[in-house]
Amino acid sequence: MGSAGSKVKAALLALATAALSACASTPEPVIGIAASEPVSELGQDSFSNTRAVVYLLRPSDKISVNVYREPDLTMESVQIGVEGNVSLPLLGSIKAAGLTAEQLEEDVTQRLGDVGLRQPIVSVNIAEYASHLVTVEGAVGQAGVYPFQPGARLSSAIAMARGPARTANTQQVAVFRETADGVTVAKFDYQQVSQGTMLDPVLEPGDRVVVGTDGLSVFWQDFLRALPAFGIFASPANF
To answer: Smallest Cα–Cα separation from 124: which of 149, 148, 94, 144?
Structure first.
């Protein structure tokens, strides 16, 4: 009985090890130009591979407004309000969202001249892309809300959340995005994204990424935790 039991345990250990190894494997990348076209059938039409060339200021972004030789009019960091305006000394509340930093700079220069400041020299810079937040949920290493830089992609969001968990179904990644017509949902296959055979879309502020769960992986983890002989696999470090 002892010998038979050992053989059963050895067989189960080999099977479990193979199952966990399969969960951790990554697909081979496909050499060449990565896919850049959205798949309409998966709801990807509103997603793009192209990074924006011009950045338009958004509510919650923080900017610095420097007026040469006018320290009382200079602000090192001021946040654009939810209504899209920013409050500046001498000028009060003015529109900022929807403009480039250069356009806002020209507007502030014009307004300061109109109120009597002689030949104002103004510079406007983005201090923090505070509007750029993405929510990552589901079967990832650490779910949460993460700041990102303009141009970051779906793969970046998953990486910030410490990558897919062992229980992840990487073929089922949903991205929720607010549009003028309401919230849209698109599906992505992270394995294909990793290979370069599916669009790795540029993130938009407010995107929500949900990585699905692989029921088979959950079964194996529950199975291993139920067997004292395989307690090593049940430790958090291994899942």
So the answer is: 94
Based on the domain organization, do 94 and 41 belong to the same domain?
no
Give the Cα separation of 235 and 239 in Å (integer): 7
Task: Tell me which DSSP letter residue 112 carries.
Answer: H
What are the C-alpha distances in Å from 205 to residues 78, 183, 229? 19, 13, 47
Percentage with pLDDT > 70 across the chain: 81
- The whole-number pLDDT of residue 14 equals 58
Q: pLDDT tens digit string along 197-217? A: 999 999 999 999 999 998 777
Let me know whether 104 and 146 are in one domain.
no
Task: Check whether residue 106 and residue 206 sit in a common domain.
Answer: no
Q: First-to-last CA distance in the chain?
A: 32
Q: Are 35 and 198 in contact (CB under 8 A)?
A: yes
Number of domains in the chain: 2
- Could you report the per-residue pLDDT of 69-89, keeping only the tens digit for each? 999 999 999 999 999 999 999
Q: Are 100 and 55 in contact (CB under 8 A)?
A: yes
What residues pair up with 145 in beta bridges, in sequence order?
Answer: 135
AA letter at 226:
A
Could you identify the residue written with the tokens 């309409």?
A: 40
Report helix, strand or coil for 130: coil
Spatial neighbors of 75 by CB under 8 A, at least 6 apart, are: 64, 65, 88, 89
Domain presence at residue 8: no
Q: What is the pLDDT of residues 118-132, one digit of tens each?
A: 999 999 999 999 999
Distances (CA, A) of 110 to 75, 117, 139, 150, 188: 17, 10, 52, 29, 47
